[in-house]
Amino acid sequence: MGICDNRTVIITGAGGGLGRAYALAFAAEGANVVVNDIRLDAAQAVADEVAAAGGRAMANHGDITSLAGAQAIVDSTLATFGEVHVLVNNAGILRDRMFLSLSEEDWDMVMRVHLKGHFCLANVLGRRWRDAAKSGNMVDARIINTSSGAGLQGSIGQSNYVAAKAGIAGLTLVQAAELARYGITVNCLAPAARTAMTEAGMPDMVKKPESGFDVWDPLNVASIVVWLGSPLSAHVTGRCFEAKGGELSVADGWHTGTINDKAARWLPAELTGVVDQLIREARPPQKVYGT
After folding, report:
1. Whole-model pTM?
2. Which end of the chain is more exposed for a tag (fewer CB within 10 A), N or C?
3. Is 147 a catalytic residue?
């Protein structure tokens, strides 16, 4: 018996890296897995790997960046497995440039894959789950989004990616608040693992060690994703988890700091000392990656 027996999960960007690890880990816990990737051959290879290990998987290369594409992915899943219980929004791309060197295409492509890609399937499935709940059916559904340490703290040379990932963290908060009444939890993850993107950007840091614990193995991160997709996590929503190796933490986001209330309008010229005092009393932000 696994913690995800009889549950069906759609995982985007699952043709390699973290998505592949999630697919293998979900299947090992009894889930039916839809391996979605723009590269059908990569998706099929992972689906075959799941099947060879005794799991159930379907390869899919539907478009996650349009509502029509998302609906087609869901329809195909329903035809094969009968229901969808979990969505893992994992797909992403990079178009790294310093901010002033970004092209409009660099910006739009990253926003399309990350932000719109997170919207479309969640919207289609969310409406399905809402309608089921309103019809009196029990819903125990999960949306697991993917943010990033870059999105939480910033990263030099990645302003488009940072903006998208920060947007996903904010989206998670609103989804969690709005969808809880329908039996849907929404959390996000800021993972650190060996993927095509990290191997391209920091190959020496993430390379597999010759012996000992492989900190950067994507399967390390998969554990929390599978737990979040299981019935065991029904009491957790609106959280952002950071995971790397054996490390797991809950990100502590923006909070309102000390308030200085004059009870009247501030004069611009008198704000220097006020702002300096507020900053002194505030918790210092984490440094932007690359600084």
Report:
1. 0.94
2. N
3. no
